[in-house]
Amino acid sequence: xxxxxxxxxxxxxxxxxxxxxxxxxxxxxxxxxxxxxxxxxxxxxxxxxxxxxxxxxxxxxxxxxxxxxxxxxxxxxxxxxxxxxxxxxxxxxxxxxxxxxxxxxxxxxxxxxxxxxxxxxxxxxxxxxxxxxxxxxxxxxxxxxxxxxxxxxxxxxxxxxxxxxxxxxxxxxxxxxxxxxxxxxxxxxxxxxxxxxxxxxxxxxxxxxxxxxxxxxxxxxxxxxxxxxxxxxxxxxxxxxxxxxxxxxxxxxxxxxxxxxxxxxxxxxxxxxxxxxxxxxxxxxxxxxxxxxxxxxxxxxxxxxxx
Amino acid sequence: xxxxxxxxxxxxxxxxxxxxxxxxxxxxxxxxxxxxxxxxxxxxxxxxxxxxxxxxxxxxxxxxxxxxxxxxxxxxxxxxxxxxxxxxxxxxxxxxxxxxxxxxxxxxxxxxxxxxxxxxxxxxxxxxxxxxxxxxxxxxxxxxxxxxxxxxxxxxxxxxxxxxxxxxxxxxxxxxxxxxxxxxxxxxxxxxxxxxxxxxxxxxxxxxxxxxxxxxxxxxxxxxxxxxxxxxxxxxxxxxxxxxxxxxxxxxxxxxxxxxxxxxxxxxxxxxxxxxxxxxxxxxxxxxxx
Lengths: 307, 290
Prior knowledge:
The structure holds two protein chains of two kinds.
Chain A: H1 2-29, H2 43-52, H3 59-71, H4 86-121, H5 126-140, H6 143-157, H7 171-201, H8 204-211, H9 216-228, H10 230-253, H11 259-269, H12 272-300, H13 302-305
Chain B: H1 2-22, H2 24-46, H3 80-116, H4 118-133, H5 136-144, H6 152-179, H7 182-189, H8 194-231, H9 242-251, H10 258-285
Helix pairs in contact in B: 1-10, 2-3, 2-10, 3-4, 3-6, 3-8, 3-10, 4-6, 5-6, 6-8, 7-8, 8-9, 8-10, 9-10
């Protein structure tokens, strides 16, 4: 297990470096810098601004400077919101986005997996059809449709929950965003779990456990459930990426001041350091959570560790 | 041998066609998609209103309140039905073209990797894995910063640039299997150069599974396009796409909920139909996958 873990961790570092380098190049390749979009600046002013932000130096020097900064946790100054550094902006927004994301994934696991298990146990009965149909519909609806619809129904018509805003993290304000984020992930988990549990329940060792006279509940709990959950565990990595993307929408719809908005605003304002910072943060988070999912997978399934 | 291969392919297509026509849900879905697409193509031309023509007499009119605007108007007095149909048209156009771009990249990438094998294959697929593990809409957002905002060509390229990953994986697997077949070996033995083998022998044999996957890419591209337009990075006003219509609707749902509900309903119907059609095609081409 230890060598498996070490190999996985060692594989992650170069990937992160590739992500940083490629996005650095892409961002710098973009024609028209952050100062080109505004009304044409007098050349000396522009030259001074570029010197201030180090944009007049050769790309390799800028790249080395950026990497050195990253090691210290310094993402550089934001070009759009001039009073803040990118690190300050991230520190402001990340706690909220992380809370949203974690709560959504937790909710999705706690509802999706049991729903899938129930659907598999009640195969081809009413409850199964309900769950699979609901999951299909939930998967077809993108979050920029469900979010506003939830706000319309629960916020405006029923008046159960606030439509938008956040009041410094009051739980009432986070219910609808978390629900919006969790819905497709829960639907996908239910589908995955149902399919894999059905497969496992047909396997020889489950039949033989039943033949030895073990009760259905005991067979499910001791023998069938663990292998049936493997696909759900390996989906957690992609689920995180999915939730991160969804957070862009949810933060827009519900007016939450998280990091998802920064990426969009950074792209609109051509605030390169901000976009880069978000790529680095989200890229490393994705890799980290993929790594954790891999390690859980390895812990559950010894076969994966060899190879 | 070529003749034999051809009958096998024809048999596969005919079987698939029969299974598909037996699948009522998939057929109904196809019918709805065709109807909506035709309606979106023809109706705006028949309407007296353009997507950007303003009707100062009728601002923010709810649906059914006036015979001149069936589904009402927005705050600027633009006909909602006409705008939504324009949006459907633009969304369909962008997503079909973006799917084509991503298919071309994916087929070539996967076929080259599968055919080359060894270290080249390893590196090419490693790149696919890395891109796969990233939230791909982030890549699209970074790519949209490269061009002027609202440029449709940029949107196409950015969407096409991320959609090819799954295609590349499918195609590589198929190419690895095809490579072992006798007719490829024969072509190599008579001295056909590698690019010609790739384009003349490998790619045509891959098309079946790739076409099935293509019907699943189109709805994904519709979602991506609407997503970007929703965030303000895609299609810009006064042009209408389902995404920016939903954005406007979400901003004004308190006073004019129909601005949200109409485009959202069109989007949801299209997506659900495309999903049913894709599932039907997958079952038709690969009955074991059920």
